[in-house]
């Protein structure tokens, strides 16, 4: 509340009156208030400090907030927002990420960062063999019966390799390396990883594929005492696990769930005949 300074005087009739003109002190008070309001107005946007480029090894998690800070001259806690919708971590390439922040006064700032997901490096046969030895040692597979060895390989490939629909096609050796090291890939990556581990343990297997106009698929036939069985470590719709399955079992799954009775039909001319006795 402003107190106006005024001096008392008498009008011609001798009555007291007040000056209608405010004194100098009133103008000074109003001017101080206006200056204070101008000083308090927040027109400064938050400051975002972020790298202009992030290089990420294929298969690694992207830590978007690492090395990024946001501050504001008001001292308030400012939330950092990240728009990474265009980034596909499953495919090497260059992507743009947007960082933005806004303070309570509506001041907004934006900073962009280029995210580069590098291609998987090529591995030597020795590196792949060392990875296989490490994984099989963890699974304690060396001294187990064949079916238990297969169970360990199946669980590793099915559960530990993150499936993506269209990984870059490579050699079997490189695909096995990517499955064991990066643990991400498509059905070919998962198939090649399982095959390498089975070959290392000396488990007899035969590679098959479905060739069609729409999509290819890769899996293995496994030889046991009872005969040959299908083993596909790629996760399947409906929770079906293609572990040591007969033709009739995979045909039933294809017809009922995939709406395609030939889902596991291979045109490999030398593929061995499968056993008819179910192991489930």
Protein model, in words:
The protein has 280 residues and is of the alpha+beta class. The protein has three domains: 8-40, no CATH class; 47-117, Immunoglobulins (Immunoglobulin-like); 125-256, C8orf32 fold. The protein has helices at residues 24-40, 125-139, 146-160, 172-181, 187-201, 247-256; strands at residues 8-10, 16-18, 47-49, 53-56, 69-71, 81-83, 93-102, 108-117, 162-163, 184-185, 205-210, 217-224, 227-232, 242-245. The strands form five sheets. It has a four-stranded mixed sheet with strand order 4-8-7-6, with no helix packed on it. Strands 11-12-13-14 form a four-stranded antiparallel sheet, sandwiched between helices. A two-stranded antiparallel sheet has the order 1-2. β12 (217-224) and β13 (227-232) form a beta hairpin. Residues 1-9 have low confidence and may be disordered.
């Amino acid at each position: 509340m402003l107190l106006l300074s005024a001096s008392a005087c008498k009008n011609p009739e001798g009555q007291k009156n007040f000056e209608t003109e405010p004194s100098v002190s009133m103008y000074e008070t109003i001017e101080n208030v206006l200056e204070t309001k101008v000083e308090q107005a927040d027109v400064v946007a938050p400051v975002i400090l972020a790298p202009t480029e992030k290089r990420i090894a294929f298969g690694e998690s992207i830590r978007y907030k690492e090395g990024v800070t946001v501050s504001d001259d008001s001292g308030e806690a400012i939330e950092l927002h990240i728009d990474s919708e265009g980034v596909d971590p499953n495919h090497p390439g260059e992507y743009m990420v947007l960082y933005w922040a806004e303070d309570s006064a509506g001041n907004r700032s934006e900073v962009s960062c280029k995210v580069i997901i590098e291609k998987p490096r090529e591995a030597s046969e020795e590196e792949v063999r060392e990875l296989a030895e490490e994984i099989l040692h963890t699974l304690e597979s060396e001294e187990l019966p064949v079916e238990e060895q297969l169970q360990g390989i199946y669980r590793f490939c099915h559960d530990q390799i993150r499936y993506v629909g269209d990984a870059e096609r490579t050699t079997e050796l490189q695909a096995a390396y990517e499955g064991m090291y990066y643990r991400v890939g498509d059905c070919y990556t998962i198939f090649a990883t399982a095959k390498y581990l089975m070959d290392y343990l000396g488990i007899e297997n035969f590679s098959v594929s479905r060739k069609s106009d729409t999509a290819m698929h890769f899996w293995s036939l496994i030889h046991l005492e009872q005969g040959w069985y299908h083993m596909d470590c790629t996760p399947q719709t409906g929770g079906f696990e293609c572990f040591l399955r007969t033709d009739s079992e995979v045909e039933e799954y294809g017809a009922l769930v995939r709406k395609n009775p030939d889902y596991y039909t291979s045109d490999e001319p030398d593929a061995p005949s499968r056993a008819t006795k179910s192991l489930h």
